Amino acid sequence: MNALGNIRASAGGYGYLKQWLWWLGLLTMGAGEAANLIAYGFAPAALVTPLGALSVLVAAVLSSKLLNEKLYFLGKLGCFLCLLGSVIFVMHSPKHDEVTSFAELSDKMTNYAFVYYVITIILMSVIIKMVFVPRFGNTNVTVYLLICSAIGSLTVVCCKGVALAIKETINTNVNNISSYIFWLLLGSSIACIMIQMVYLNKAIDIFSTNVVTPVYYVMFTVLVIMSSGILFREWEHMSIEDILGCFIGFLILMIAVFLLNIVKETQYNSNNIVVH
C-alpha cells in the first residue's frame, strides 16, 4: 500500500478500494453473507451465527489441500473440535423462531428492552470511536473489533428482518416490500455492514489476522446472541440442559477457532525463518 502511495487503512486511508483483489474478496464475502441472509430467514440467529466457526474449518482444510499447507496435530484437533462443537450446539440450540411474521417482528422492535439495547450499542460505539480509538486503537485489538461486533449485532437483527420480510412476501399475499420498516431495516443493514468493513479493515491492517479472527468471532457471536435473546427471546422456552449444551458447544467452538489460528500463526513464523 505504501509503495503505491496509498494511505493505510489504520491511518484512515481507503487506498484498498483501488485494489481489484480487495473487491474480489468483498464480492466473495458478499456471496457468503447472501447465504447467511437466507439462513436467517429459516433459522434462529442464535443458531446461525455461532456456526460461522465452520468457515475457519473450511479455510484450514482448503489451505491444506490447495496451498499445500501442513495440517499438524493441533490443526487436526482444531478441526475435530470445530465439528464436535457445531454438532453439540445444533443439537441443543433453539429449533424454531419465536417470531414467524414481519408484523410480529416490527412489534417486537418497539420493545423497550431492545430499544435500550440499540441506543446503548450506538452510544458505546460513538464513545469508543471518540475516546478509545485515538488512544488505544493501534495497540489493543479489542478496540476496533468491539465496534465491529457491536454494530454487527445490529446488522444481524436487520438482516433477519429483511430475510423474514422477503420470505413472507414470497410465501403469502402480504406485501412487506412496500413497508417503510422494510426499507429502514435494509438501509440500516447496508450502513452497518459498511461501518463493519471500515473498522475490520483497520483491525486487520494493524494486527495479525490470526489474532483478529478468533477475537472477532467470540465478541461478535456473544453480542449477536445477546441482541437476539433480547429481541426474539429464543431462550425462554429452552430447558436448562439445552442452555448448558449450547454453552458447552460454543466453548468448544471458541477453543477450535483459537487452535486453528494458532496453527496458522506457527506455520507462518516457521516459513519465514531464514536459515544461514
From TrEMBL:
<keyword id="KW-0812">Transmembrane</keyword>
<dbReference type="InterPro" id="IPR008521">
    <property type="entry name" value="Mg_trans_NIPA"/>
</dbReference>
<comment type="similarity">
    <text>Belongs to the NIPA family.</text>
</comment>
<feature type="transmembrane region" description="Helical">
    <location>
        <begin position="244"/>
        <end position="263"/>
    </location>
</feature>
<feature type="transmembrane region" description="Helical">
    <location>
        <begin position="211"/>
        <end position="232"/>
    </location>
</feature>
<keyword id="KW-0472">Membrane</keyword>
<feature type="transmembrane region" description="Helical">
    <location>
        <begin position="73"/>
        <end position="91"/>
    </location>
</feature>
<dbReference type="Pfam" id="PF05653">
    <property type="entry name" value="Mg_trans_NIPA"/>
</dbReference>
<feature type="transmembrane region" description="Helical">
    <location>
        <begin position="144"/>
        <end position="166"/>
    </location>
</feature>
<protein>
    <submittedName>
        <fullName>Non-imprinted in Prader-Willi/Angelman syndrome region protein 2</fullName>
    </submittedName>
</protein>
<keyword id="KW-1133">Transmembrane helix</keyword>
<feature type="transmembrane region" description="Helical">
    <location>
        <begin position="20"/>
        <end position="40"/>
    </location>
</feature>
<dbReference type="GO" id="GO:0016020">
    <property type="term" value="C:membrane"/>
</dbReference>
<feature type="transmembrane region" description="Helical">
    <location>
        <begin position="178"/>
        <end position="199"/>
    </location>
</feature>
<dbReference type="InterPro" id="IPR037185">
    <property type="entry name" value="EmrE-like"/>
</dbReference>
<feature type="transmembrane region" description="Helical">
    <location>
        <begin position="47"/>
        <end position="67"/>
    </location>
</feature>
<feature type="transmembrane region" description="Helical">
    <location>
        <begin position="112"/>
        <end position="132"/>
    </location>
</feature>
<dbReference type="GO" id="GO:0015095">
    <property type="term" value="F:magnesium ion transmembrane transporter activity"/>
</dbReference>
